[in-house]
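Hi there, hope your week has been kind to you so far. Please have a think about how the structure follows from the sequence. I've dropped the whole record in just underneath, so have a look:

_____
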Amino acid sequence: MLTWNVLHRVHAENYGEPAIHRWRDEPERVRRVVDLVSKALCIDGFGVALLQEVSGDVLQSLRDHLPAWAVLDHPYPRMPRLKRPGPPMRDLREHLVVVAPGGSTVFRAQTFAGDPGKGVLAVTVPSGLVVASTHVSWGPKGEAQFATLRELFHASRAPVCIGGDFNAEREVLVRAFGAEVVVGALPSGSPRTRPSEDATGGLDIDHLLACRAELSDLRVLDHSELSDHRPIAATVLPR
């Protein structure tokens, strides 16, 4: 599976993310984002895509291009608003999205208390595995949200894998979730999942976590600078 914060265009414009300078045409960027996800699922053999910061435009395009897949979403109550003029978009709403095999169903969808633009969407796939896409707030607010994710790991007896933008480095998650949860470790020398603006450094704040399952073959994927985050991928093997 893969996890990727695809970068909502409104947030990109408001914070001047470098991706918008490379991709000034938002419909073209949407097309390329959806092409990357579609290729991963339909050609490269991925079974699940966990996506964050999905605009309504990206969501509709995913559904148009992946009719055989379940494209499940959780919309936030907050509507992103441009602070400056930006490119036209049809649908500014923001969603968490899980793209999974047909027949997958929503297990839980929740906006975190205290932040109307962060949350978790958990889905049961036909094999019984529970997978979840999450976007966690920065700092103490985010650490409080870990409690919701810890509870999710125990809400089902099935193997559970949670991926997303945790806004925290791996060692923070290891301390927060304890020994029973595997926090995927990227190989040494991997590109940063959240590159800095000058592309010379950055942070690793995107992660895959598993309980009653093992993670292997973790890697960072190329994304043609479509977002301010790089996708990460792994193989998930139930214990």
